[in-house]
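ASSEMBLY PREDICTION REQUEST
Request ID: AP-0331
Submitted by: J.K., bench scientist
Number of chains: two
Total residues: 784
Priority: normal
Notes: Please return the full assembly, not individual chains.
Input sequences:
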Amino acid sequence: MSVRADTLAGAAARTPGRASRHRREAWIGLGLLLPAAVLVFAFTIFPVGYNLWLGFFTKHSLRLTSTWVGLGNYTQILADPDFWRSAWLATVYAVGSTALQIVVGVAGALILHQRFAGCDFLRGVALFPYMIPTVIAVFVWRWLMNDLYGVIPYVLSTLRIPGMPEAWLTHTTIMWVLIVLSVWTFFPFVLVNVLARLQTIPPELYDAARVDGASAVRQFFHVTLPQLRNVLLIVLLLRGIWMFTKFDVPWLLGFGGGAGEAIRTLPVFTYQRSFTYYQAGMGAALSNVMLALLLMAVTIYFVAFPPSEDETDA
Amino acid sequence: MRWDSDADLRRLVAERREGTLGRREFLARLGATAVGATAASVVGTSKPAGAQKKVVVTTWDTEPNPATRAAMKAIVDDFHKLHKDIEVRAEGMGWGDMDRKLQAAMAAKSPPTASHTQTYVVTSFRAKGLIEPVDDIVKAIGEDKIFPSVLRWLKYPDGKYWGITHAWGAEILGGRGDYAQAAGVDPQRWKTWDDWLRDLPKLNKAPQHYGLALAGIPFFVNEDVYMLTGANGGSLFDAKGQPALESPQVLGMLEFWKKLKPNLPPGWASHDYLETLSAWATGKTASVYMWGRTAGYIDQYAPPDKRNPDVFQVWPKTTGPLGKAPLTQFDNEPWVIYADAPADEKAAAREFLKFFFKPENYRKHCDSVPVHILSIYKSDFQDPSYLNHPERKRWKPWLDAQLKWVEIGRAHPLLVCNPQDMVIPWIGDVAATPILADMVMAVVERGKDPKAAAKEASDKIVRDIIDKTK
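STATUS: Completed
Returned structure:
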């Protein structure tokens, strides 16, 4: 116990009224924390713990009974080619859509960082795709890309480009549609974050670069990009995690079957195990595997890209 | 209620304002007062001892369209007039929503009192002890008044009825008469798959319109898989309920599907069922598998001069080389009563369903979608007041075609190629998965050998469904 604690304890002993007041305040403090603690336990700790526990059972979703299988679900998962295929599809989707979101988001932010007529309006408009409910965005894209009525296939067909697909929501092309749709929907998140950081870069850095004769390209690579490093690392991490675990967009676009089997990513595969195969235990185990894969990826990410300690980069 | 209408709160706030009460003590007493007020309000709103408690019956049905909701409300209102001690809460929702909602409710042992479902789901639920027999309702309606072909699918080997159909329908092959005429094709002469395959390319004028529209979403692929397999003389299951996907009949069905593909829209694998109906109504396809509900799409999308059965015709379904007769899907959606519902609710639900099926009430239900929600009463199909409904008159060939399927006994519930398939306990579980659809896509879209795809699907059914059901 520290000297300060001893002193406090001694003082409390000398003044019993103060000690009881401290105890009362401690109880009030605990009481005030209790609702939050109960909520965190009920909605985070318990579900995660229960999911880990459930992963060791076979359990039909419609029945209360379950059977202990130990690591049986996990061995089946690792031996299942469908699991590896969905993990691969989830990776392709996450990497492809995140990379393009970063490119489009940074490009958009660089444009909107400039002052020109209507730039404030455009900054607002750029957020629209992110504000539209996912189900609406996906259904609009389904209509736009429909091979019988869609505007986009029609316009593309009029261009008569050799090798252009007749339909886009097919096994061979639906992943591209999913990625483009996701980039359109989610790039504003990148744009807003990058734009906010761009507006805090000290202009003196650019002045100094110009004095040294740096071209615009060199200014981008040697001033802007290093200054964006930390925000890009966070955005990359968050968007990567969110795209890897994204369920609603691939589900609504492909409904998990038909051409949709070509975008049956890991979250969709997990959902189907739980809610169409009625395998609650297997679904739980798959969720746990997905969590483990993400933890591994995040760990590797932080080892490869440690956060910069330079305060000015923050 | 305003806060200052409470004397305790007024006094508390006054003391705080005067400074005689510290902030912490004020907050603590405020919390205590709030808890006390909540408890008092709960006690205050509870019913006095001896007051009559209403039994609440919750029903979920799959007809969310406004006309059926209005009909259901009228039936429920009339029921309430006779049964003041029962409150029926009738909710309508789409199939997809119902499936998920029901699943969550069943897992939580908190199902509705009664709901619509599919015939094959009755088999699954019965095997799991999740529903109760409804013999008393069938008896109250009068067993002899109902189409035998409607009743047969819900009477199980134990001799009990485990569901009672709210309406029936048979899937028909709809075809554009104007396109057939322009192509010089007479579909009424089709008997076999070869006949169909011979003429489909003539009806396929891509990209203006395609020969046939099929849905690629798994549930609807399942429909086509078992209908075509049945038409080819086979079944998806053997006598022991094990998958029979490597049979010549199923492999023949897969080969046939490959031959159909050039006549389908290029994006068929992503089309859902409703897209195929609108494609037919708008003239983007010459033919489609459809139900009576399609009449609504035709009225909505087709040119006014074409909204008639001369243009939107019924074409014959055909037989595969190994089969003796075509097979179609029987939509036999039954009401079921859930075993886990409280006893008084179940009893009240039975009363409500007996009331629902009284002819004067039931007619309102049928008339809400006249060509799709078909009556289970045999006599209605002799009754001019039923048949002379303007919509039923207009689409009479569609009604006749459905009735014919029922009369010849070749309309079977989903995945039931042979009547004995009905009692396979995992049939509903197979229908819920994308296994069969994946098999078709592997062959038709990814060029996989049918035998290898069928074996893979069989293994999945055994590993992921049958073994897990044991």
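REVIEWER COMMENTS: The first strand of chain B starts at residue 55 and ends at 61.
SIGN-OFF: pending second reviewer
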